[in-house]
Design brief:
Length: 139
């Protein structure tokens, strides 16, 4: 049950909703009741799934960018798109960062990045963050 709750928490944390999957992972790891590999997998899966939701929303919403109620002004969208195209997919290694990480996954979707490369870059970033947290807890 802990794995499912952690995955759900990590999923929510990867969306634009406020949540802290790092705290949940740390607390569960310190109780010692669950395997760290299982915790790592659950947190990574949930967080990557949340990023995939952001990517999907970005891809879908880009069709509405000319609509007056579109959440970004055309200049904001063009700036984000140019930035993403300039620096490319490796910028998704920053997707684990607070504040900029979640919008970055959204912009990747709006920029029509293909799904498999997106998942690869985001999985490395988010899985790496959780591995680092667990490694630091081991000291």
């Amino acid at each position: 049950m802990n794995y499912l709750l952690l995955a759900l928490n990590a999923f929510i944390a990867a969306t634009l909703l406020p949540a802290s999957s790092e705290v949940a992972l740390s607390l569960l790891a310190q109780t010692g009741d669950d395997s760290w590999t299982g915790l790592w997998l659950a947190a990574t899966f949930g967080n990557v799934a949340g990023a995939l939701l952001n990517w999907s929303l970005g891809r879908y919403l880009s069709h509405w960018q000319q609509h007056p109620y579109f959440p970004f002004k055309p200049q904001q969208w063009h700036t984000a798109q140019n930035w993403f195209q300039r620096y490319g997919a490796p910028t998704l290694l920053l997707s684990w960062l607070p504040i900029i990480g979640d919008p970055l996954t959204f912009v990747a979707g709006m920029a029509k990045m293909r799904c498999l490369p997106f998942l690869l870059w985001v999985s490395i970033a988010k899985g790496g963050r959780y591995a680092l947290i667990l490694w630091l807890l081991d000291f």
